[in-house]
Design brief:
The protein is mainly beta. Helices cover about 10% and strands about 45% of the residues. The protein is built from 2 helices and 8 strands; from the N terminus they run E-H-E-E-H-E-E-E-E-E. The chain has a 6-stranded antiparallel sheet with strand order 2-3-1-6-7-8. A two-stranded antiparallel ribbon has the order 4-5. InterPro entries: Nucleotide-bd_a/b_plait_sf, RBD_domain_sf, RRM_dom.
């Protein structure tokens, strides 16, 4: 479903193509550098965020990663990595809607991952802010 505003992945509901993906079901052992290496083969990465970060003092059972590509067409390619086993888990890659604000980009995803409690819940929107 393309909005006609160029090549990319349309999200429906009048949203324009996005350049951001959410990667879930990540091993707790994964690092930002490993994620950057994996997704850099698909397109130039503008920004990458891993939660919890590499230097988190607590242990978590899984992680979630957000990748913002320079070119929205990389999102469609990245989705083909869904169910690819990386370290010890099958990746889940979904596009995220971007809402542009003057100094930052806010990413909205429909996810089953609760970033506040690190638990799996029913689908709910989550917000991740990119930029300053």
């Amino acid at each position: 479903m393309n909005s006609g505003a160029g090549f990319g992945l349309g999200l429906g509901f009048g949203l324009t193509p996005t350049a951001v993906i959410q990667v879930t079901n990540l091993s707790s052992a994964v690092t930002s550098e490993q994620m950057r290496t994996l997704f850099s083969f698909l397109g130039e990465i503008e920004e990458l965020r891993l939660y919890p970060p590499d230097n988190a003092p607590l242990a978590f059972s899984s992680k979630v990663c957000y990748v913002k590509f320079r070119d929205p067409s990389s999102v469609g390619v990245a989705q083909h990595l869904t169910n690819t086993v990386f370290i010890d888990r099958a990746l889940i890659v979904v596009p995220c809607a971007e809402v542009m604000q003057p100094t930052r980009t806010v990413v909205m995803c429909n996810t089953t991952f609760d970033h506040r409690e690190n638990t799996v819940l029913g689908k709910r929107p989550c917000l991740i802010s990119f930029g300053s």
